[in-house]
């Protein structure tokens, strides 16, 4: 890549947290309040729900097309969740970054690890990547959040808490670790991280003084 090419590219902001940890809420807040931030539209093999639009909410693919994309190496990360496949296209992320947008991705710790691996192969992604782990203040608080959602049985919540312990142990692999407090405080912290990252010497640009 020539010097200066895509020098105005945006950031790739990856947020991970255990299930019920609040990563979806923080992403929604950033999309509302952080200028120039967009989400990467995910591909999925599940059927559209009422009101969902292809290319807006998701890219809806059949299983065969999804598999072909996997085999072609088109995905930055992909996973199987409750019988359906989900994946983030490299072209989706790079296309928006090259428009100068900051791209937001909410993934589990395994997805974040896969993205880090891919970034090692792509200097443009490596330069743009910021990873943040959002940790719950305690497992008791996380359990209450999962119960409040009302989506899972007691056995499923117990399983998720066990998975959360394993996920929390991965926090050292992230650039930043935030212990979740309130939505407003978590959002402010994320905005501070984004501001600081944009001021890094490797990303900052001086005006043309000629």
Largest sheet: 5 strands, parallel
Number of DSSP E strands: 9
Name the average pLDDT: 89
What would you call the structural class? alpha/beta
Beta percentage is: 15-25%
Terminal residue distance: 26 Å
Q: Percent of residues in helical segments?
A: 40-55%
Instruction: Enumerate how many helices there are, as a single number.
Output: 8
Radius of gyration: 18 Å
Strand order of the largest sheet: 2-7-1-8-9
Give the overall shape: globular
Low-confidence stretches: 1-6
H/E series: EHEEEHEEHEHHEHHEH
Structure overview:
This protein has 8 helices and 9 strands. It has helices at residues 23-33, 63-71, 90-97, 109-121, 123-128, 139-149, 154-168, 183-198; strands at residues 12-16, 37-39, 43-44, 59-60, 75-81, 84-89, 102-106, 129-135, 176-179. The strands form 2 sheets. A 5-stranded parallel β-sheet has the order 2-7-1-8-9, sandwiched between helices. The protein has a 4-stranded mixed β-sheet with strand order 4-3-6-5. The longest helix has 16 residues, at 183-198. It is globular and about 65 Å long. The model is unreliable at 1-6 (pLDDT under 50).
